[in-house]
Design brief:
Shape: globular
Order of helices and strands: HEHEEEEEEHEEEEEEEE
Number of strands: 15
Radius of gyration: 18 Å
CATH class: Mainly Beta
Number of helices: 3
Oligomer: single chain
Number of domains: 1
Helix content: under 10%
Strand order of the largest sheet: 1-8-9-10-11-12-13-14-2-3-4-5-6-7-15
Largest sheet: 15 strands, mixed
Distance between the termini: 15 Å
Length: 261
């Protein structure tokens, strides 16, 4: 069950490895001359405005892994750049985990085993090799560009799409971005690991495009053996809110407390 709870957390943390992508508008994409653009660092996260401070979502999560295949439902609540609350249900309607990620801590209650796992935001770096804060994580979940600028690598613009390609820290990456902020496809590779992300089915929610279908796959080779893992997140509901939803997380006193790794 420990692996199962880790998978729930990985879903919240995005299982993002390396770089990320954009939404494809192949049906109506403008075909035109391409151009290379040199840009100063742009505060992309700040430029991406949300209509309200809060959003809630419901999602179906499916994970394929050499150890097991799991599916569960998840409820998410987010406050811009401040916190993400989540609840995971499996085995029908049984809540197996609940947690809260904020600027100072990550807390997860494994209700199935009555364990309370506590850490800080540094735990995110155990899953991703890039700085990842609350704002970046929220943008990732919505299917939008979640890094700070487009100056890393070569940027090519074709109509309403941008293509970024480069290498950083021994990792080759490329990404396609639609209408500045919508991340369609991304891939990052090094000699041992390849990670691909694709966001699809963008829908306008309060005049803001949100990806309702996200697929993340990784292929890791170690000691001559390759391990493939897949994550699919499908939103069944997403809405922005004017009023603050409930972010309460009360860990039971009798739960077995342990550090989150």
């Amino acid at each position: 069950m420990k692996f199962y709870i880790q998978i729930v957390l990985l879903s919240i943390l995005g299982m993002v490895s390396f770089s990320c992508k954009k939404k494809d508008n192949s049906n109506g994409k403008e075909k035109g001359k391409s151009s290379e653009v040199n840009r100063e660092p742009a505060l992309i996260l700040e430029q991406q405005q949300w209509p309200q401070e809060y959003w809630t979502a419901k999602a179906k999560i499916s994970i394929t892994h050499p150890q097991m295949n799991v599916s569960f439902n998840m409820t998410l609540r987010a406050e811009r750049n401040k916190q993400i609350w989540f609840s995971a249900n499996a085995f029908g309607l049984m809540e197996v985990a609940r947690g809260l990620v904020d600027k100072d801590s990550v807390r997860v209650w494994d209700k199935f085993n009555n364990r309370c796992m506590i850490g800080n935001l540094d735990v995110l770096q155990g899953y991703v090799p890039i700085p990842l804060g609350l704002g970046q994580l929220q943008h990732f979940l919505m299917g939008r560009v979640f890094w700070d600028s487009l100056v890393a690598g070569k940027l090519e613009v074709r109509g309403d799409s941008s293509f970024v390609k480069g290498s950083q820290g021994g990792i080759d990456f490329k990404a396609s971005i639609w209408q500045k902020y919508m991340l369609h496809k991304a891939k990052a590779t090094d000699p041992q690991l390849e990670v691909s992300l694709e966001n699809r089915n963008f829908k306008p929610i309060s005049n803001t495009l949100i990806s309702f279908d996200k697929t993340l796959t990784s292929s890791q080779t170690e000691n001559g053996k390759t391990q493939n893992t897949g994550l699919k997140i499908e939103f069944t509901k997403f809405e922005f809110l004017n009023s603050k939803p409930d972010f309460t997380l009360e860990l039971p006193e009798d739960c077995q407390k342990q550090p989150l790794r």
